[in-house]
Design brief:
The protein is built from two helices and six strands; from the N terminus they run ββαβαβββ. The chain is an alpha+beta fold and 83 residues long. The strands form two sheets. A four-stranded antiparallel beta sheet has the order 3-1-2-4.
Length: 83
């Protein structure tokens, strides 16, 4: 199962904690996260290796997504890191 890390930025520039999604493809991950954020939120999806996701974030059931409030975005905003 493909895994994705999602960055959601609202209309005021606030960046949510990283969102981890376990979906069939990036489009499914985007649609799933769209259910969790406002309509004007910018959603950026990046694929991550399943073994990396499991090591960093643990098991995530297929077709689900979760905010990881115990992680934050790095200074450059491209990769998440633990708090």
């Amino acid at each position: 199962m493909p895994a994705y890390i999602v960055k959601a930025t609202d209309e005021n520039g606030w960046i949510s904690p990283p969102i981890v999604a376990n979906c069939q493809n990036a489009n499914d991950a985007t649609q799933l996260v769209r259910l969790m954020v406002s309509d004007v939120t910018k959603v950026e999806v990046k694929g991550i290796r399943t073994d990396v996701m499991q090591e960093a974030f643990g098991e995530l059931p297929e077709g689900t997504a979760v905010f990881r409030s115990d992680w934050t975005w790095a200074e450059n905003g491209e990769t998440p890191r633990p708090y």
